[in-house]
Specification:
41% of the residues lie in helices and 18% in strands. By secondary structure, the chain is an alpha/beta fold. The strands form 2 sheets. Strands 6, 7, 8, 9, 10, 11 and 12 form a 7-stranded mixed sheet that branches. It has a 5-stranded mixed sheet with strand order 3-2-1-4-5. The chain is globular and about 65 Å long.
């Protein structure tokens, strides 16, 4: 078995070299249709690597099964821009899908310098007492958003769907800063592990059925989460559904609920850890650790229904700092479980802050005038 780094270096280099050749080849293509076809081929090459990377993380081919059912991301929304950054050793390539077609922009910053800046931004962003992160948020905005923003200036774009790669998966892109305001002030921001990996159909608001799992007590050497009770109460007040709290939140009970009831949202307010290796990744139940395989087994029961699980929310979980393979697991949990979207934090937040954000997110989601889960999150943030 190879380590995460060597998998990316050995296997990844093949895909990225081919993508590089295709991107360079598109430059000499005079005919717009042929040029766009070459850009799509370059993107699809990187997309295949993302599939291979997720399969390597989970040690199975669950991802191919997920891909087979997916409707393409493009064409779902006329007000979304899909941004596909490709980090190469000597430059950053930005492929942007707009309702009018695909456009390419090249930024002269190599993967090493970009990754270093991303890690610095993340480190300062976690430091809650200062605003040292702002200059780094601005630098990253200048590389990732500024060069392409003019492309959709008059297109009425209100949502950015970003397909992050490598270290970009470890930062909240909503926190990039243009010098005046944060990206989240201007757009709803969603990220996806791949354009062919997630089902982008909007959440059906009629008949939402929620299963809420929560731990407020200290169990298995993990500290209590006192604010979870208020969070769970609000969600139940808004959407009803079933609540399994503390000693009722046992793995057999979760399996039973998911087997017998057609839930559309699964909310887990409990400790969770996402690590470089999927075997070390788990969500805490009252009676043990729910691994990704277990979760897939439970939620997988729903995936072949006409309406599979629409949303998994993980409140109080954390990913290993700056580790893009751990962040891969966070994104992969939705794919592995056959859910259409996931909401989670990149690091362990203050329990109270996390609960108030999540509560507001559900309030916004309950409002029929809010068009999407991305928009509900934007308003809550």
């Amino acid at each position: 078995d190879q380590s995460g780094a060597s998998f990316r270096e050995t296997v990844g280099s093949v895909y990225f070299e081919l993508a590089d050749l295709l991107l360079r080849g598109s430059e000499g293509e005079a005919e717009p249709q042929k040029r766009e076809a070459t850009l799509r081929e370059a993107r699809d090459t990187v997309e295949l690597f993302k599939v291979a990377e997720l399969e390597h993380y989970f040690h199975d081919d669950c991802v191919q099964a997920a891909r087979s059912r997916v409707t393409g991301l493009e064409g779902v929304s006329k007000t979304a821009a899909i941004i596909y950054p490709i980090m190469l050793s000597d430059r950053l390539e930005l492929l942007v899908s707009l309702p009018s077609g695909m456009v390419r922009k090249t930024v002269p910053v190599g993967e090493e310098a970009l990754t270093e800046e991303i890690h610095t931004f993340r480190r300062f962003l976690e430091k809650r007492s200062t605003r040292e992160y702002l200059s780094h948020a601005k630098k990253l905005y200048g590389w990732l958003i500024q060069p392409i923003e003019p492309l959709w200036a008059s297109a009425g774009i209100d949502t950015l769907v970003i397909v992050p790669d490598g270290a970009l998966r470890t930062i909240p892109l909503a926190a990039l800063y243009d010098g005046t305001q944060f990206l989240i002030k201007k757009y709803a921001v969603a990220t996806t592990p791949g354009v062919t990996l997630t089902d982008p159909r909007p959440l059906d608001r009629k008949g939402i059925k929620v299963l809420t799992l929560g731990l407020t007590e200290a169990v298995q050497d993990f500290p209590p989460l006192p604010h979870v009770s208020g969070e769970v109460a609000t969600i139940h007040q808004l959407f009803g559904g079933t609540v399994l709290m503390n000693e009722n939140f046992r793995m057999a009970g979760v399996e039973q609920e998911l087997k017998t009831q057609p839930y559309s949202i699964l909310h887990i307010a409990s400790h969770g850890q996402f690590q470089s290796e999927s075997k070390d990744t788990f969500l805490l139940a009252y009676d043990g650790k729910m691994t990704m395989d277990k979760l897939e087994g439970y939620v997988g029961l729903l995936r072949f229904r006409e309406n599979p699980l629409a949303l998994i929310t993980l409140s109080a979980c954390e990913t290993a700092a700056g580790d893009d393979r751990a962040a891969l697991g966070l994104a992969g949990v939705a794919i592995k479980a056959g859910a259409r979207s996931a909401l989670a934090s990149l690091w362990f937040l203050d329990d109270q802050a996390s609960s108030s954000l999540v509560t507001e997110f559900y309030r916004q989601l309950h409002d029929d005038s809010v068009a999407s889960t991305a928009m509900a999150l934007q308003r809550a943030q």
